[in-house]
Each structure stands twice: as C-alpha cells, then as structure tokens.
Amino acid sequence: MAVDLNIGNDFSTIIDTAEAVTLKRRGSADEVAVPKAWRYSSHAQQAEVGMTGVARTDVVWQFAWPDAVDPPQIGESIIDSAIECWTILSNAERGAKTRLRCVTRNLRIVNQLDDRIEIQEAVWEDSGSGPEIVGWTTLRTAVPARIQPEQTTIDNTVDPPTSTSIYRITLDDDTPLDHNHRLVGPDGSVYQLVEYSDAQRIDALPIVTAQKQ
Length: 213
What we know:
The protein has 213 residues and is mainly beta. The chain has 2 helices and 13 strands. The chain is elongated, with a radius of gyration of 21 Å.
C-alpha cells in the first residue's frame, strides 16, 4: 500500500537540492512516497589501507511530515532516487513538529552486498504418508546479498572422503526465514538454511548460515 504525501509547506518549497524518496515500512510491503527530502549532511568512512571503497556511509535526511501519517520508525528504510537503501538509526521532530530529521546508514555498502539472490518458499502437499515438499515458489527476487564461504568439514570416515561447505550469507531483506525457505545464488546454486540470525537488529543485516545443495 503506497501513500502519497502532498505537502506544500515552506520547507519543501525552498529546498532546491531536494529529491524524491520512499519510506519502506519494516516487515511489510507498505511504502510512503516523500516528494521532497533534503540530504542535510553525509559522512563516509574510508576503508582500511589496502582495501577499496568505503567502510561506512551515513546520511542525515530532513523532510516534511504530516500528523495524519504514522512517522518513520527506527529500523525502517529510506530509498533514495538512486535506489540506494538507507536504514533509519534515529529520528527527531523539527520545525514545530512538521519536519523530521532522520539519521540513516547504508548497510548495503557496509556489507558489500554485490550478489543478487532469490528467496524461495516450499510448497507442501500431503500424499497420504504425511506432508512433503513437492516444489518451490519464488518469494523475493534480486535481493542484495553477500555470499561468503565460512567453513568446510571433511569426512574421512567414508570412501571416498567427502566435504561439506557452510556459507555465511548477508541479506538486505527482512523477510522472516525458516525451514520453509531456501536461497538461490546468482549462478543457480541452491543454499539450504541451517541458521537465521540478526533479523531484529537495526544496525546490522540478517545473516543466513547455509549449506550448498
């Protein structure tokens, strides 16, 4: 559900460098369109010597907001005109409570989310002997992620020996995941969930521990 704000106050009128942004509600598909938002300040922390890019980038936003619409909450996101995602770390009212000031962080940049993955959900059916998975449906596509090998366990008790690799996958998506879900990498590799954590933190992204099938 999208809500368009038609705000004609002085703040949004005098800011020449404003851009249209979208507030994404946490844990839902609800969005609020903000016609004019101002990047009040920004700060980028450079990566360590020998590494490229930045380690962290923060932006302080200001924009008008009417009393009739629920204000942004900590942990929700601002999507800017370049489709970059900024997680709200704090917010405060300004200008007789008609304007908001939000401190945000780009967690995609912090975690170097260069992969695009698909989240799939299991389709269950009972054939008479109990429920079983008969297929998978796509739940989310093109989710920014970072897939990293974390651990390989070698079993020398079998002939020939086998190896099992565990991966750490950082996701820019707050969809609750459990045994009903799996991830598909950009190369088509399928990852079965072993653990899901950090979904409730506002300063970090969800982490999936997974085994490649």
